[in-house]
Specification:
This protein is of the alpha+beta class. The protein has six helices and 17 strands. Helices cover 21% and strands 31% of the residues. Helix 1 packs across helix 2.
């Protein structure tokens, strides 16, 4: 027996938080009965209906690493019919991205139908490191660089990079490598914008120990069992 919202999330329908919202709204049924109480326990033999859709219980967990192209959104579907990261993966399983990359941001993103792993990787307490390469306007002054290394307050919370390096300065722009543990939306862009150096281009190069390797833009690969176990060990 498991909590209803956990089963919904673990089988790739939506996040656990969104599942809780759907339950409160009366949009979830178990064996034909509307469930309104959070924490209700069910088993895999029960028939779970969400917004009129019968939940497919995934027996097979799948894990993909995608080199996200620019102009693709980090979502399962899009009301504006834009291309999504899910549409780039050839699979019959109901997968979704772990976290987000902006529409114009490229690089490494993970997709899965394993809600437990997704929650583990996105939870702030597990401090999963992400490395980005940012092309920013202008050149960081020494005071800006060392100030950022010590940490910068963004929307009331301090962000301290685990690594910061200026790789190149070209005319009135710079290429900066930055590693952070943060997972807030647009956080890298907000860091540099707060210093007066808007981001022109942004690419995520690594996620924890995973890198893009030789994957070209739009290409993907499945994670190995060893890699999945190593991701679980980050908890």
């Amino acid at each position: 027996m498991e909590r209803l919202q956990k089963i919904i999330a673990n089988n790739g329908y939506t996040s656990r938080r969104k599942a809780e919202e759907l339950i409160k709204m009366g949009k979830v049924k178990v064996n034909g009965k509307v469930i309104l109480e959070l924490g209700t326990k069910v088993n895999k033999e029960d028939t779970i209906e969400i917004e009129g859709n019968v939940l497919k219980i995934n027996e097979k967990k799948v894990y993909y690493l995608l080199n996200k192209p620019r102009g693709v959104i980090s979502s399962v579907t899009d009301p504006e019919n834009r291309k999504t990261v899910v549409s780039l993966i050839d699979t019959d399983e109901r997968i979704y991205p772990i976290g987000r990359l902006d529409y114009d941001t490229t690089g490494l993103i993970l997709l899965t139908n394993d809600g437990e792993l997704a929650n583990l990787l996105m939870h702030p307490k597990n401090e999963v490191e992400k490395k980005y390469i940012a092309k920013i306007e202008g050149v960081l002054s020494p005071s800006e660089f060392y100030g950022l290394k010590k940490g910068i307050v963004i929307e009331g919370r301090k962000v301290i990079p685990t690594h910061l390096k200026v790789k190149k300065e070209i005319e009135n722009s710079s290429i900066v490598e930055i590693c952070i543990l943060e997972g807030r939306n647009h956080i890298v862009k907000k860091i540099f914008e707060s210093l007066g150096h808007p981001v022109e281009k942004l690419k995520r190069e690594s996620y924890a120990f995973l890198t893009l390797g030789n994957l070209k833009s739009g290409e993907y690969r499945e994670l190995s069992l060893k890699e999945v176990k190593k991701l679980y060990s980050l908890k």
